[in-house]
Structure formats: structure tokens, C-alpha cells
Amino acid sequence: MKEIVSILFLSCFILQATAQDLHEDALTAASYAYAHAKKAHGANNVFHTQEYADKAIESFRKAEDLAAQCECMEANETAYQATTDLESALEQDTYERSRFYVKRAKELGSTLLEQLTKCRVDSQNAVAQNPVEAKEAAIAEASEEVEQKQQELEEKRRQLNLEQQRLEQQIAEQNKLKAEFEAKRAAELKQQTAIKAKAELALKKLETALQELSIVLNEDATFQAQKDYLRSQSDLENETLDDTKNFYVDRAKELTRTAMKQFAGNAEN
After folding, report:
1. Could you report the per-residue pLDDT of 236-248, keeping only the tens digit for each?
2. DSSP letter string over 105-168?
3. Neighbour tally for 243: CB within 10 Å
4. How far apart, in whole angstroms, are the C-alpha atoms of residue 128 and residue 122?
5. Is there a contact between 108 and 78 (Cβ–Cβ < 8 Å)?
6. Which of 130, 190, 233, 266 sits in a 20 to 30 Å window from 145, CA-based?
7. Cβ-contact 41, 106 below 8 angstroms
8. Which of 21, 20, 19, 34 is nearest to 112 (CA)?
9. DSSP string spanning 243-259?
10. In sequence order, what are the residues at sequence separation of 6 or more whose Cβ sits closer than 8 angstroms to the Cβ of residue 233?
11. Angle CA 160–165–166, to nearest 5
12. What domain of life is recorded for the organism (predicted)?
């Protein structure tokens, strides 16, 4: 009888030690996962964010597997969700969206450490009191908690999906407005280019006509030609259609005023 008791005691001790090692390994993996997730969240560009996120995924997966072996089902689900979020972070093409999923994974990493710590303490207490009954009670409690957490996670997933849909809709609307603006600007620039060509040709003809008229009225007179109405394409890109029109109107007025002053001088002579 004593031998049987000794064997049972030794078996319980071995089980307890094995469980303790599993919990320690799970906590170690979770610590690495949380550290990598924090680095990913603290990165200032999408490359480093995803680089650390990739490292965190490996540690979260290890923690997920060890949590299952420890029968820490809540921690197992948390590690799985963190892995899912990090995988989503790797699929994003912008820093903001990638960091959005990394932030959630980092928060889950902190929660995972708390869950594993609690699970280890509960396991130690259960083994110390009554290994068999504690195990059965823990399984029943864990199953109930897992079901509740699954429902909560499902609701969170639903809310996150709605949030992601709203985000995608906002991005789509912004892209649409950007495309409309670019199309409108391209059409306006086309009009500006046409006005530039016609206005400069007309001003050149006007200048030539005024030069000829000046010579007719006074052979010795020389009309002061102006070429400041000739512009480059880049000038148009930095102004509106109205700005372009006003520029050539002002040049025409200036050319006319110059001609009137010179003709007035010719008349006095």
C-alpha cells in the first residue's frame, strides 16, 4: 500500500514538474512574442514594423501550442488571435494599417502573459489540493470560459470587421476624390496650355503691329518690345486657370500702355 501511495505521489510530483516546465516555456515564448510586438509597434516605418511582426508571429505560435499543452485554453485563444492580427499586419501596404493590427497584437501579448501566469498559479494550486478533481474542475471551468471568450472574440471580430470596412470605405472615398481632383486639374491645365499658346501668339502679333505702326508714324522711332509674356509650362502648373487668364490680360494692358506712351511722345515731336 505504501508502495502504491509512493508511486502515486511520485507520479503527481512528475506531472506537476512537467506542467511547471510547460508553463515556464509558454511564459518565455509569450515574453518574446510581446517584446517583438512592442518593437513592431514602436517602429517608425512599415518595413521594420513588419520585420518585428514576423518575429513575433513565430513566438506567438509557440506560445499558442504550449498553452494548449498546459490546457490554458484562454491563453491559447489569445495567442491565436494575436498571430492572426500579426498576419494581417504583414498583408498591409501602409504603415498606418500595419501598425493598427500590430497594436492589437501587442495588447493581446500583455493579456497572454497575465493569462499564462494565472494559469500556472491555478495549476499549481490544483495539483497541490487534488490533482484529479482539480483537473476535472479546471477543464470544466476552462471550457466554460473558452466558450464565453469565443463569444466575446466573435463579437470583437465582428466589430473589427465593421471598423475595417469603414476604414476601407474612407480610403476608397479619398482615392475617388483624389482621382477627381487630378482629372479636374489635368483638364484645367490643358485649358491653361491652350490659352498660353493663343495668348502669346496674339500678344506677339500685337507687338509686331505696334512696332510697324510706330515706324509708320515715325521712321526714327523704335518700339520698345517686351517679351515678358513668354512663359514655360512649369509656370502654369503653379497657378489656376484664372491666374493664367489674368496674367495675359495684364501683359496686354501693359503692352498697350507702353505703346500709348510712345505714340504720345511721337505726336509731341
Report:
1. 999 999 999 999 9
2. HHHHHHHHHHHHHHHHHHHHHHHHH-HHHHHHHHHHHHHHHHHHHHHHHHHHHHHHHHHHHHHH
3. 12
4. 10
5. yes
6. 130
7. yes
8. 34
9. HHHHHHHHHHHHHHHHH
10. 193
11. 95
12. Bacteria
Q: Which three cell numbers stand for residue 38?
A: 512592442
pLDDT at 91: 93
> Position 222: which residue type?
T
The predicted-structure confidence for 75-114, as pLDDT tens digits, reads as follows 999 999 999 999 999 999 999 999 999 999 999 999 999 9
pTM comes to 0.43
Residue 104 corresponds to which cell in the numbers above?
Answer: 492589437
Q: What confidence tens digit (pLDDT) does each residue in 115-164 have?
A: 999 998 887 777 666 555 555 665 777 788 888 989 999 999 999 999 99
Residue 98 identity: S
The grid cell for 42 is: 514602436
Residue 222, SS3 per DSSP: coil
Helices (H) and strands (E) in the chain, counts: 7, 0
Reference 36, options 90, 91, 115; nearest CA is 90
For cell 491555478, the residue is 122
Nearest to 223 by CA among 239, 234, 212, 232: 212
Q: How far apart are the first and last CA of the chain?
A: 142
- Name the nearest CA neighbour of 67 among 122, 14, 112, 1: 112
DSSP string, 66-100: HHHHTT-HHHHHHHHHHHHHHHHHHH-SSHHHHHH
